[in-house]
């Protein structure tokens, strides 16, 4: 990334690269020993296909914040007996993976907190989930019992390499049942550049993207939940995440069609127009990606420059001065250190994204959706140049702009929705 000082991981948009022969030759040795003496698996309480066809939902508490942590995570159990793993919630990537004791190079957790592939099974290369991870590249399995390897390269230049396994993934359902299905996920044993941008405490990533490989797609394929992902990230930290349709409000949501094109595997919507203080800025016709795996919002250079100019122009004559702060590239200080974004609300105007498609749909970006107040009491712009960050012309709406909103990715109805919400409270959607 252009800015090495940002805390937390920055962008999660990923590409997958698959490696075969070499990887499997290596792996065979690693896993052979650990798979000996594996106890028989048991405990499936949820039948793969729900009788009524409606399924239930999974509801998980979220912890984390935009600043200073830079990520939001959930804790899930994996294995039998289940072991707890804290995973970064990521709607910008598909593959769920955990740091894996295979053994691992580059893992950040102590060995006893790594996932041990003892009872897990290798996902065969010919499994549809493995094919989905390859997509849109053609999927070829050379040998009969070939395993499914993966490499994920994140936009912040971190990468993880490993093998796909399937293991017991117990999840409590809101109807009171326990789902103990085997789900496929990555056992990552070679992590690179998981440096300044990677949360050191998380064990991996919960991939909630739209491909068949994501956890939500897998659960929906088994009839356990609907293929709907929702998150509510509180600006005060914490929040909640759900998989399934039980918490989708019947009214009050703003829905925008989810773009469907073969080259964009991400949750995106558009075309959008940028408004500032309710007025057009002249910037329009761009698409945006909703990515909970990105801490900040990234706009392609032209849109970013417009945003920066508008904010700066708006600040002229006001008592804020440019200041250097390690947190982010663009910061200002006041006469006294600020305590929260509330203290600077009067200095900044609101942005909005107006989705110019069918109806006039807006995503409001008030000052707290694009500014942070740092430990030093400065206020910094939480919108960054995606072009400088290596994202090309993509525009990525990250956690900072998704805070205090219930955001729903409804894959069943191909739409993305949002509504202001107090994310510290559990919603009742039924
Ligand atoms: C399932 O496995 C767990 C631990 O591996 C064991 O305690 C439990 O008794 C088993 N349950 C059944 C129904 O076999
Ligand atoms: C809860 O939902 C799951 C998944 O659809 C289903 O298999 C299970 O039978 C349901 N449990 C109850 C108590 O309704």
From TrEMBL:
Residues spanning the signal sequence: 1-32
Coiled coil: none
UniProt-listed PROSITE patterns: ASP_PROTEASE, PEPTIDASE_A1
This protein's record includes keyword Signal: yes
Gene Ontology MF terms: aspartic-type endopeptidase activity
Active site: 90, 291
Gene3D superfamilies associated with the record: Acid Proteases (2.40.70.10)
Domain Peptidase A1, first and last residues per copy: 72-419
Gene Ontology BP annotations: proteolysis
Keywords, comma-separated and alphabetical: Aspartyl protease, Hydrolase, Protease, Repeat, Signal
Pfam families given in the database record: TAXi_C, TAXi_N
Keyword hit for Oxidoreductase: no
PANTHER family: ASPARTIC PROTEINASE ASP1-LIKE ISOFORM X1, ASPARTYL PROTEASES
Family, as annotated: Belongs to the peptidase A1 family.
Protein name, per record: Aspartic proteinase Asp1
UniProt organism field: Durio zibethinus (Durian)
């Amino acid at each position: 990334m252009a800015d090495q000082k940002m805390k937390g991981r920055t962008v999660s948009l990923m590409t997958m690269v698959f490696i075969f022969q070499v990887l499997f030759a290596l792996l065979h040795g690693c896993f052979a020993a650990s798979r000996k003496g594996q106890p028989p698996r048991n405990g499936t309480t949820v039948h793969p296909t729900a009788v009524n066809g409606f399924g239930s939902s999974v509801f998980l508490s979220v912890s984390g914040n935009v600043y200073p942590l830079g990520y939001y995570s959930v804790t899930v159990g994996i294995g039998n007996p289940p072991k707890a793993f804290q995973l970064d919630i990521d709607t910008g990537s598909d593959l769920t993976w955990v740091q894996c004791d295979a053994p691992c190079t580059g893992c950040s957790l102590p060995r006893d907190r790594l996932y041990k592939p003892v009872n897990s099974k290798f996902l065969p290369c010919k499994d549809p989930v493995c094919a989905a991870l390859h997509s849109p590249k053609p999927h070829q399995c050379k040998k009969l019992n070939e395993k499914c390897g993966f490499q994920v390269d994140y936009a912040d230049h971190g990468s993880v390499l490993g093998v796909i396994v399937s293991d017991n993934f117990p999840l409590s359902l809101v109807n009171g049942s326990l789902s103990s299905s085997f789900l496929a996920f990555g056992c990552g044993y070679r992590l690179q550049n998981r440096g300044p941008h990677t949360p050191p405490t998380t064990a991996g990533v919960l991939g909630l993207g739209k491909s068949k490989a994501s956890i939500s797609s897998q659960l929906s394929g088994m009839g356990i939940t609907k293929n709907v992902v929702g998150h509510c990230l509180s600006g005060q930290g914490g929040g909640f995440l759900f998989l399934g349709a039980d918490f989708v409000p019947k009214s009050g949501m703003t829905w925008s069609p989810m773009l469907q094109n073969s080259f964009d595997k991400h949750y995106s919507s558009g075309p959008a127009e940028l408004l500032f203080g309710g007025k057009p800025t002249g910037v329009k016709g761009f698409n945006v990606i909703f990515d909970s795996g990105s801490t900040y919002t990234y706009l392609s250079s032209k849109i970013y420059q417009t945003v920066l100019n508008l904010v700066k122009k708006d600040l002229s004559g006001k008592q804020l001065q440019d200041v250097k702060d390690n947190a982010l590239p663009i910061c200002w200080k006041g006469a006294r250190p600020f305590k929260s974004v509330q203290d600077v609300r009067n200095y900044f105007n609101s942005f909005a994204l107006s989705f110019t498609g069918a109806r006039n749909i807006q995503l409001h970006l008030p000052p707290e959706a694009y500014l942070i107040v740092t430990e030093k009491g400065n206020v910094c712009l939480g919108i960054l140049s995606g072009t400088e960050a290596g994202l090309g012309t993509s525009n990525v709406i990250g956690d900072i702009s998704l805070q205090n909103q219930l955001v729903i990715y409804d894959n069943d109805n191909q739409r993305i929705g949002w509504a202001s919400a107090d994310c510290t409270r559990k919603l009742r959607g039924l």
